[in-house]
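User: I'm writing a short report section on ligand binding and want a predicted complex to refer to. Could you take this sequence and magnesium ion and write out the structure as C-alpha cells? A short remark afterwards would be nice.
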Amino acid sequence: MTNSWVPGADASGFGADNLPYGVFSRAGAPPRVGVRIGDYVLDLAGALGDSEFFAASLNPFMARGSTVWLATRAKVAGMLTAEQGRAVAEPNLVPLGETVLRPPFEVADYVDFYCSLEHASNVGAIFRPGDEPLKPNWRHLPVAYHGRSGTVVASGTDIVRPSGQRLPPGAKEPVFGPSTRLDIEAELGFVVGTRTALGRSVSVSDFAEHVFGVVLVNDWSARDIQAWEYAPLGPFLGKSFATSVSQWVVPLDALGAARCAGREQDPAPLPHLRRLADWGLDITMEVRLNGQVVSRPPFGAMYWTADQMLAHLTSNGAALRTGDLYASGTVSGPRKDQRGSLLELTWGGSEPITLGDGSTRTFLEDGDTVTVTARAAGMAGATISLGEVTGTVRAAL
Ligand SMILES: O=C(O)/C=C/C(=O)CC(=O)CC(=O)O
Ligand SMILES: [Ca+2]
Ligand SMILES: [Mg+2]
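Assistant: Sure. The C-alpha cells for the complex follow:
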C-alpha cells in the first residue's frame, strides 16, 4: 500500500492506490474535475491547472488518451504521498461534505452485455421454462443490447416506478399500468475514453488504450414489461426508464492487483475474441436492500471479460466515442447468495426474501432503497473501493 499524508485516506478504500475521478462543485462555483482521496476531493483544476479539469464532465480529460491518463495519475499520486507535493495539493483539498457531486461523465452510447453464465442460465430458465436456457450463440459471442444513454443517471437519483404494458398471469390481453415487478441488476460498467474512426475495430489487446475506468451500474428492470415486450428484438422499455451509475470512475490502472485470468471458455472463441491478457477482475460486489445485504456477486466469475466485450462491440467497425458506457450485464455467481437481481434471488417471485424488519420482498416496493458497493484488492494489501450506486424507488406518476 502506498501511504498518503491525507488524514484517514489509507484505511478508507480511497487511498493513494485508488484515486478515482469525479466531477464536483462547491457552493456558487462552477463544476470541476476532482480526484477522491479519503473523505476529500483534490481539485485538479486548482492543483494541476490544465483546461480539461475546468469542466463539467470527465469527457475532455478522457479524450486525451491513455498516456495523459497515466501521467496525470502519477502526478496526483506523487502530490498525495510525497511531502514535496503536499504544498501544492493541500490548498486544493476540499472536504467531501462541502461538495456537490455531479454525474461524472457525459454518456455517449450505452450498451448492456449479458456476460454472466449463471445470470444468463437463471434468466433463461425463469423466462423460457422448457427451453435450453442459453441460446446457441451465447458461448460464441458476448450477447448485448443497446440501452438508452439519455436515462443514465447519477447515483442518488430517485427512480420513478415505470408504467408499461404487461400481460397479467393467466390473462389473454395486456394491460397498461405501473410495473409490479420492478427489479435491480448489479453490474460493472466500463467507460470509454479514446474514440475510434468509423470502420475500425479495437482488438482485445488495445482494451486499456480505450477504456478509461469503471463504474458501478444498477440497470433497473421492470420484469413484467420486459417479459411481454422483449420477443423477438430484446429489452426496450422494461430497462430504458433509468440506469444508475456511481459517481467516482475508478481508473483501470487502479485495478492492476485485481486482474485475474478470465473464466475458462469452452468452446474457444473465434480468433478476434480470443484473450491475450488477463482482464478478469476480482471484484466483490454487495447489494443492499434497505440497508440489508441481500447478495454478494463476484465479478471474477464472469464468463466474458471486458476486453472481449469491447472487441465484440467494435468488431463490425462501429466507432467508439468518448463517454461510451458498456456494462457487463448482471453479475451473478454460482451460489444463491451471489445473484445480482431479485428476479434470480426470488426465482421469478416464487421464493420471497425476508428483510431485517420482518417484511418480505419479491420485487421492489415504493420507498425501497437499493445500494450496490464493491471492493477490489489493491497493491500490497490496499483495498480499492468502487464507491456506491444507490437509488430509491418512488411511486409511479
Ligand atoms: O434473457 C433475457 O431475455 C433477458 C435478460 C436480461 O434481462 C438481461 C440483461 O439486461 C442483461 C444483463 O444484465 O445481464
Ligand atoms: Ca442489465
Ligand atoms: Mg436500464
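A remark for your report: The first strand starts at residue 21 and ends at 25. DSSP finds nine helices and 26 strands in the chain.
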